[in-house]
Amino acid sequence: MPYASVDQLKAVIPSGDLALLTDFDGAETPSDARLEQALDDASAEINTYIAKVVSLPIAETPHILTVVCRDLAMHRLYMNLGHGSEVYEALRRDAIATLKSIAKGETAIGDDGDGDSALTSPGVAMTDGPDRLFTRKSLKGF
Fold it and tell me: Which domain of life, per UniProt (predicted)?
């Protein structure tokens, strides 16, 4: 299951480019099947990065994965057409950097702030450390 829908991908591609990117038969209409294939390919690539840190399949897609999926699919579509531009290369670089960050555990993907957040560890409280330098007693009179 792709992390983004065809409609979500269509929303970020200029309408004039849709048919150009997907219509190889000359019908001058966008091919949802080609868009779906690009999203499937992008989702498979995402899974190769996050599979070790996240249990797959993900029940509810986090927004960041939708964005990364759209960017990778868009890059794939434009590159297949031969329109290599720095903008689409930057989209891919940023998406891959985000995925690497997720894989290293530097970036969280789970909580978008829409619901209850779950602790990722038991949250042990630190109870020892150096004595406090400033206390009520030591600051009395200031």
Answer: Bacteria
